[in-house]
């Protein structure tokens, strides 16, 4: 598992980490999300021993990265897919890493086949597309068959087939009992694969919970109703003590009552309706609510240039 506790880090006057604390459990995919400047990259660098914290600790299976013997056997990470020697072939890049960790060429060939680079393995990596470089970086992360996996923006450069493959890979790694930490800006992709999510802003944790729990809390027990008689529907719901607001020519939004209750009230009042839908928030909605005041950079409202 990964244990991050009380991390604090400053770069001059800038506070990068302000008490960052969370864990990544075995057998789960944990999403790690936040706006630019939230501290995600710095946290990952501290976990991997690339930066030293001013306070706190980051442990992998109970030890800091620097104390792990042959670390690729304990943790695999995709941090920067461009960090390779462009004149080497993809296979030679992996061989160099493997030999530094006491691994054989068999580990290399297994990883190459797993990520689907078999036909490109003997080509120079400098000619790889971004998606292929991502796959090479993932192969490097998996070389030592580690129990802990860290992926920073793994969907970058992936085509639709690659995205589908990546989803399945991350889920399968967790199903094998590994602790998987995934940093990404693609909320839709994370919602489909993550069991847990850590939302961060300005160097601290804003939320740390199961995805389904966060989404349920943000859904607000809202029901959307489609009817040709919205005023009659709202009136009937009001008489029953249920809050309802006409929100369109044929729509009513109901709060504080389940869909079954709405159907019962309208049926008794002989109000016709064509659809009753329970609102379910998305992970993106949850993210935007939690990080609304935590963004370091915000764009202005687009406007058209005034006519002269």
Automatic annotation (TrEMBL):
For the keyword Transport, the answer is yes
Residue span(s) of domain ABC transporter? 2-227
Cell wall biogenesis/degradation listed as a keyword: no
The organism sits in which domain of life? Bacteria
Q: Which SMART domains match?
A: AAA (SM00382)
Q: What GO terms are given for molecular function?
A: ATP binding; ATP hydrolysis activity
Keyword annotations: ATP-binding, Nucleotide-binding, Transport
Similarity remark: Belongs to the ABC transporter superfamily.
Record's PANTHER family?
ABC TRANSPORTER, ATP-BINDING PROTEIN
Name used for this protein in its record:
ABC transporter ATP-binding protein
Q: Which species does this protein come from?
A: Actinomadura verrucosospora
The taxonomic lineage of its organism, from the top, reads: Bacteria, Bacillati, Actinomycetota, Actinomycetes, Streptosporangiales
